Amino acid sequence: MGYAHRVDGERKIHLKDFDPHGHADVGREEAEEKTARLCEEMTELQEMLYAASQHSVLIVLQGRDTSGKDGTIRKVTGPLNAQGCGVSSFKVPTSEELAHDFLWRVHAKAPARGQIRIFNRSHYEDVLVVRVHQLVPEKAWRARYDHINRFEELLTDSGAIILKFYLHISRKEQEQRLLEREQDPTKSWKLSTSDWQEREYWGAYTEAYEDAISRCSTSHAPWHIVPADRKWFRNLAVAETIVEALRPCKKGWLAHLEEIGRREKAAIAELRRNHASAPPHP
Amino acid sequence: MGYAHRVDGERKIHLKDFDPHGHADVGREEAEEKTARLCEEMTELQEMLYAASQHSVLIVLQGRDTSGKDGTIRKVTGPLNAQGCGVSSFKVPTSEELAHDFLWRVHAKAPARGQIRIFNRSHYEDVLVVRVHQLVPEKAWRARYDHINRFEELLTDSGAIILKFYLHISRKEQEQRLLEREQDPTKSWKLSTSDWQEREYWGAYTEAYEDAISRCSTSHAPWHIVPADRKWFRNLAVAETIVEALRPCKKGWLAHLEEIGRREKAAIAELRRNHASAPPHP
User: Fold this and answer.
1) How far apart are CA B174 and CA B20, in angstroms?
2) I want to staple B126 with a disulfide (CB 3.0 to 4.6 A). Which of A152, B102, B112, B255 is the partner?
3) Which of B56, B104, B160 sits opposite A107 (nearest CB)?
4) Would you state the pLDDT for residue A186?
5) pLDDT one-digit tens code per residue, B93-131
6) What sign does the dihedral B13-B159-A121-A130 (CA atoms) show?
7) How far apart are CA B176 and CA B187, in angstroms?
8) What is the pLDDT of residue A127?
9) Is the Cβ pair A147, B154 closer than 8 Å?
10) Which ranges constitute the DSSP H helices of chain B?
């Protein structure tokens, strides 16, 4: 049993059944050591993913304000090689984006094979904030769960590995973090009256998240509920989930790279046999 | 019964059941007059589509070499206002495009609300040339029919009107046109040995087209088979199909535009009542 909770198949989940604190069988120091080791392994796996270019990786980060999306990107995926890794943030849509279907701007940012792409918020906002604030009619957002599942299947059919994380934070911890932001001059730029206003909709967001996670946890693109009240636990849970999803691909990537290597060596041997200006023997 | 044949719902069609010549109850002169009138109406409809911005229009043009895709764009949709109309040609994919799912480059070119977009070739190439020349495994192209239907449903759910045309040309007429290209110095730049080579695959393409048309004729995005051996008949058929698809929207667009007008007038009246520097009375 991992540190994050993988939601398998479409079934109704209730967030109250998941402890935002995480379980007790790991301490902070041990967790930070484990995370560091996992991040190293992640970097090695990324190198092979990049070289083999058979898969892409899409990491979706969702969660309420202060749940730690930015912190996760910094701490967990920060060490990755930027040449093969990018972050896309989805904010309030522009008028051009609104003139298209809701997946248009998201599809444009889908990772190419060999690449890791992190979505800081995502197409799920279109069944979260859009639903809570009734920005489109109910009929429209209800149809989106199916559209999302089909879209994600299109990506996985093309070699994408999709990992979706809900950073699960308690109401109390959120209050704490908002108050801290007010105290800390280096964090107060992040302050926003809307964060306090959105807290009024806590229950509506809970429902919206429960539906999104329940309806869009498919075998090809499961959701992971991450206890996020303690940052070091959250980091460990996310790092572990990513590494465990990529590790099984390693063997295939290595075989593919060896095959490429064999072909190149044969081509060089051919050059040596047939050309005056051949590469020198090693 | 229109000049083009609309394929309704998923059912198996056979191209040999459709006459590439078209029916006989219209002569060239009459057809050209009708087409001219239809193109005028199309331009008026476009203006309302643009102003109301509730729908977008996606016109997909497919057909074998020399079937008249370029000619249709020039003659039928040429008169449209370029501010609200664009053409996207899909040629051999780039390596960046190939590193994504097959709909990635296509989705990026989907029309915004208010716009008409013409696809000169399209995502259907991924179940046509790709199938005929086995550029991906059968399992991969077989899965694409469903992906295409879902993708097109995503677009129509967001207000797209999708019109797909297969320009149906006979083998004999194609030979004629290829020979003409060789004779005509102003057309010989279009010549390509691959056109003659592709003719060898006539039967395989027929099968691939029949499957694409049969499997992807949905109620939201039907295919239209256009007799294309005579260019003037082809133009009439395409023009008629476009206009008849847009005409039913006209009432709704006008109502929407009137509503916008009413609101604006009320706002101006408000200005007149309350402000010293108010606009003069008309």
Assistant:
1) 11
2) B102
3) B104
4) 79
5) 999 999 999 999 999 999 999 999 999 999 999 999 999
6) negative
7) 13
8) 97
9) yes
10) 28-52, 69-75, 95-98, 104-107, 129-132, 138-157, 171-183, 193-199, 202-215, 231-246, 250-274
pLDDT tens digits for range A38-56? 999 999 999 999 999 999 9
Closest chain B CA to residue A158: B101
Phi, psi dihedral angles at B251 (to 5 degrees):
-60, -45
The terminus-to-terminus CA distance of chain B in angstroms comes to: 49
Residues with Cβ within 8 Å of residue B169, at least 6 apart in sequence: B20, B63, B64, B66, B67, B68, B228, B229
Domain boundary assignment for chain A: 5-249
- pLDDT tier, A2 (very low <50, low <70, confident <90, very high otherwise): confident
Q: Which residues contact A243 (CB under 8 A, 6 or more apart)?
A: A38, A41, A42, A45
User: What dihedral angle (degrees, nearest 10) is formed by the CA atoms of B8, B13, B17, B19?
Assistant: 60
Please tell me which residue, B277 or A132, carries the higher pLDDT value.
A132
Note every long-range contact of A43-48, with CB atoms under 8 Å and residues 24 or more positions apart, other chains counting. Answer: A43/A79, A43/A80, A43/A81, A45/A243, A45/A246, A45/A247, A45/A249, A45/A250, A46/A80, A46/A81, A46/A84, A46/A85, A46/A116, A47/A81, A48/A250, A48/A253, A48/A254, A48/A257
* H or E element in which residue A143 lies: helix A138-157
Name every residue whose Cβ is closer than 8 Å to that of residue A72 and which is 6 or more positions away in sequence.
Answer: A61, A165, A167, A234, A235, A238
- DSSP lists the bridge partners of residue B89 as B120
Query: Of the candidates A100, A110, A153, which has its C-beta nearest B112's C-beta?
Result: A100
Decide if pLDDT at A6 tops 70. yes
What residues in B contact A127, CB-CB < 8 Å? none
Q: Does B147 touch chain A (CB under 8 A)?
A: yes
Q: How, if at all, do strands A160-168 and A56-63 pair?
A: parallel
Q: CB distance from B145 to chain A under 8 Å?
A: no
For the cut 70, the answer to whether the pLDDT of residue B1 exceeds it is no
Identify the three-state secondary structure at position A115: coil
| Cβ–Cβ gap A147/B157 under 8 Å | yes
| pLDDT tens digits for range A115-132 | 999 999 999 999 999 999
For tokens 């302050």, name the residue: A191
> What does the mean pLDDT of chain A come to?
93
Q: What percent of chain B has pLDDT over 70?
A: 99
Cβ of residue B127 closer than 8 Å to a chain A Cβ:
no
pLDDT (average), residues A162-174: 97
Fold of B5-249: Rossmann fold (3.40.50)
* Portion of chain A with pLDDT greater than 90, in percent: 82
**DSSP category for residue B186:** T
β-strand partners of B167:
B63, B226
The pTM assigned to this predicted structure is: 0.91
Residue A113, min C-alpha distance to chain B (Å): 5
At residue B221, what is the residue type?
Answer: A
Question: Which pair of structure tokens corresponds to residue B1?
Answer: 């019964």
This complex has an ipTM of 0.89
**Contact present, A46 and A59 (Cβ < 8 Å):** no
